[in-house]
Amino acid sequence: MSLRTALTLTSFLASLLGLANVANACFPALGTSRPDTLPDNNSNWWCNPSDEYAFLGFSYDVTACQDSSQLRKDFKNMREKFNSRYVRLHGACDSKSFYDEVIEAAWENNLGVHALVWFGSDGDDRWRSRRDALFATLHSNPKAPFVTRVVQFGSQPLFDSVLDPAALAQQVKTAQANLKPLGIPVTISELAFGYQQHGVEVLDAIDSINANMLPYLNKNASTGANAWPAVLEDLDWFIAHGKGKKIYLDENGWPSATSPEVQPNSPNAVADVSNEEAYYKLLDSKCEVFRGVAGGGVGWFSHMYSDQKEPGYGIYDSNGMLKFPFQPRTEC
């Protein structure tokens, strides 16, 4: 089923009536706050995925091992200035207590976390110790199941060929078994092209589809305002092969500048601030389309929060200045 035909009857009627989604008292919906005491479990804790479409939050690079005060400052800004509901971690900090600090900062600011087991690009086995450390914290910190919405097992691990697809699928299944008592699902963060190269074994194993959407790298890329055909192509593929699973666009954006790591595959691709802004305006204009996708709609992240660690993609530049007005829609 293509994106053009994936509207559910409920969302179609809601769009006709001009009704906005009304979130119940759930975490981390806008307008709600954490309770004074933790519930017994998180079975009725999280918002329904059907309410989690449009803008959700930011990718946030943690290779700097930000201290707790910086985490709290940034997470507070995400929530209060931009209406973020989630933060999606990127990179790795191998400090022993770091994810505990992330949990505290997220809890304090009513943010859910898309956690990440980072593989990196060195081909080493440090991901194993990162996995074990993250899982230990998830089991030991009582707030972890109420903050951690999903664990992403790698960022582009198929595209980067960090593990054989069968081995990666097994890692996902083992992680699911480990985290099932905590009610924490497991996925990977991946390009459509990564699945297309290596088959859908991993796609079948994951609990949600956390799609990398980087249309600037498309071979037909031109401007941010004209990126919809590339986005639609990948979305249609995920809808056709994803068996109705919830879709998030997590590593998702258009750069304001090139770098050694960010080089286009089209001579017509333009990287500047106005095109970065235009891409997010394009996503805003497709809010009703995103809302109607089966599985609860498509929620998207801005990649990234700051240029300090991945030049070009941040909403803030390397000097901490906002590049352009950014108030994306969180519902429609």
Describe this structure in words.
With 332 residues, the chain is of the alpha/beta class. It has one domain: TIM Barrel (Alpha-Beta Barrel). It has eleven helices and eight strands. An eight-stranded parallel β-barrel has the order 1-2-3-4-5-6-7-8, surrounded by seven helices. Helix 2 runs parallel beside helix 3. The longest helix is centred in the first third of the chain and has 15 residues. The protein starts with 8 loop residues before the first helix and ends in a 30-residue tail after the last strand. Glucanases play a role in cell expansion during growth, in cell-cell fusion during mating, and in spore release during sporulation. This enzyme may be involved in beta-glucan degradation. Active on laminarin and lichenan. It is found in: Cell membrane.
What is the gist of this entry?
By secondary structure, the chain is of the alpha/beta class.
Largest sheet descriptor:
8 strands, parallel, barrel
- Radius of gyration over alpha carbons? 19 Å
**Overall structural domain count:** 1
CATH topology: TIM Barrel
| Tally of individual helices | 11
Helix fraction? 25-40%
Q: Which regions have little confidence, pLDDT < 50, spanning 5+ residues?
A: 4-23
What share of the residues does DSSP label as strand, in percent?
A: 5-15%
CATH class: Alpha Beta
Major sheet: arrangement of strands: 1-2-3-4-5-6-7-8
Enzyme class: hydrolase
EC number: 3.2.1.39
Family: Belongs to the glycosyl hydrolase 17 family.
Subcellular location: Cell membrane
